[in-house]
Design a protein that fits this description.
Elements lengths: L3 E4 L2 E5 H8 L9 E7 L2 E9 H10 L5 H12 L4 H10 L9
Length: 99
């Protein structure tokens, strides 16, 4: 399970938990550092913003993450297709012509 905290209505995910969940070998710098009591004493513990966390999920190649990605594509993206199309058109990736 990924440890998280809520501060001022925003969710942050503990970098160590995220690393273990995704099997990452590199250290991540969190957007937020909080002094916390750990097994090794009081230490600065890093936390990622939701945006950072979801970016890592979408970049992950772990097989178990593919189900999460599929849910995002099937359940969330359909509600934002107009916005996605506008972004792609504004960047010149797709044209604005309709059939």
């Amino acid at each position: 399970m990924i440890e998280s905290i809520e501060i001022d209505g925003k969710i942050y995910f503990q970098t160590i938990s995220v690393s273990k969940f995704l099997g990452l070998q590199t250290r991540m710098n969190g957007e937020l550092k909080i002094r916390s009591k750990t097994n090794g004493g009081v230490q600065n513990v890093g936390y990622l913003s939701e945006r950072q966390f979801y970016r890592l999920i979408l970049k992950s190649r772990k097989s178990f993450v593919s189900e999460i990605k599929e849910s995002i594509i099937e359940e969330i993206l359909p509600f934002h297709l107009d916005l996605i199309r506008d972004i792609l058109q504004s960047k010149g990736i797709i044209n604005g012509k309709s059939n």
